[in-house]
């Protein structure tokens, strides 16, 4: 029996998942693979590198730092999240990421990114993060406030545009048990919005434009599918038990910490059920 961990994105709302994972790490919950989307990938990478509390630590430390995320970076670099600071200086100098432990880990790590030319999700297995951090950046690059990330001959943006919650991919890969960590409460559904202003930014990429136009509908369909799979005990889902008002680029440390602690709390309330699920054959 193999277990896959699927992590939704959502900007700093995804710090909820860090709370869940840090408690899972304490309980030594073993997984064979992680499929992360956007912030989910940036949180999940620390599970593979065995660095609990790293995600909450650096996000609290730099959330209000002008070099990290915000309007200044957007105006200066074209990216709301500063590429050099957030993806290189922080993990390489300020809060060092353990690249060696990551590389040695047997956990498979898949990064979900959207190929804007094909309009399809790509699930890139990153075995060695040392020279592949750009895939994590690609998965987290929000359309409209991020430059297109070019890797080789491919062009990428936010993985959530094509596949917000890649449960189907986890099952296709043959994982018998799937733990899903969502960042929205059970009642949340995306409102219908065509986002024409955003579509107009990507006229050269009609397939990506279509993704923008249909994202809300597709997301809501995924949530309904999750509910069905939960009832059949095919997946196990942990989601926020209540809604906390938190921005994708939240600057308030107290709000970020509250979201993180909610993840810890919700995991602790569900861990006995999770352990029963993981024993299924």
Topology:
Blueprint: E1 3-7, H1 15-26, E2 33-37, H2 39-48, H3 54-62, H4 71-77, H5 83-94, H6 99-104, E3 108-115, E4 120-125, H7 133-140, E5 149-151, E6 154-158, H8 167-172, E7 177-181, H9 196-199, H10 206-231, E8 235-238, H11 253-278
Parallel strand pairs: 1-2, 1-7, 2-3, 7-8
Antiparallel strand pairs: 3-4, 3-6, 5-6
Helix pairs in contact: 1-2, 1-11, 3-11
Task: Describe the fold and architecture.
- By secondary structure, the protein is of the alpha/beta class.
- It is built from 11 helices and 8 strands.
- Strands 1, 2, 3, 4, 5, 6, 7 and 8 form an 8-stranded mixed beta sheet that branches.
- The relative contact order is 0.18.
Query: Roughly what percent helix?
Result: 40-55%
Kindly report how far apart the N and C termini lie. 7 Å
What structural class do the secondary elements suggest?
alpha/beta
**Poorly predicted runs:** none
Q: Compute the gyration radius: what is it?
A: 18 Å
Q: What overall geometry do the principal axes of the alpha carbons give?
A: globular
The overall pLDDT average reads 96
Strand element count: 8
């Amino acid at each position: 029996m193999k277990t896959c961990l699927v992590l939704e994105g959502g900007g700093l709302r995804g710090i909820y998942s860090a709370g869940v994972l840090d408690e899972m790490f304490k309980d030594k919950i073993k997984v064979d693979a992680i499929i992360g989307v956007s912030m989910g990938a940036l949180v999940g990478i620390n599970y593979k590198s065995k660095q609990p509390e790293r995600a909450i630590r650096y996000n609290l430390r730099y959330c209000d730092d002008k070099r990290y995320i915000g309007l200044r970076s957007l105006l200066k670099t074209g990216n709301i999240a500063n590429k050099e600071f957030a993806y290189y200086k922080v993990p390489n100098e300020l809060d060092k990421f353990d690249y060696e432990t990551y590389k040695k880990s047997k956990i498979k790590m898949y990064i979900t990114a959207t190929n804007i030319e094909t309009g399809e999700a790509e699930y890139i297995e990153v075995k060695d993060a040392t020279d592949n951090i750009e895939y994590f950046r690609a998965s987290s690059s929000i359309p409209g406030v991020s430059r297109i990330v070019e890797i080789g001959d491919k062009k990428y943006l936010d993985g959530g545009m094509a596949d917000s919650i890649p449960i189907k991919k986890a099952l296709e890969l043959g994982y018998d048990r799937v733990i899903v960590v969502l960042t929205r409460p059970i009642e949340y559904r995306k409102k219908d919005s065509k986002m024409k202003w955003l579509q107009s930014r990507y006229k050269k990429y009609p397939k990506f434009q279509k993704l923008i136009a249909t994202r809300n509908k597709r997301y809501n369909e995924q949530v309904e599918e999750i509910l069905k799979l939960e009832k059949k005990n095919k997946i196990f889902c942990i989601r926020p038990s209540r809604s906390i008002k938190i921005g994708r680029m939240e600057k308030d440390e107290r709000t970020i910490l509250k979201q993180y602690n909610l993840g810890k709390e919700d995991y602790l309330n569900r861990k006995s059920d999770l352990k029963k699920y993981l024993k299924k054959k």
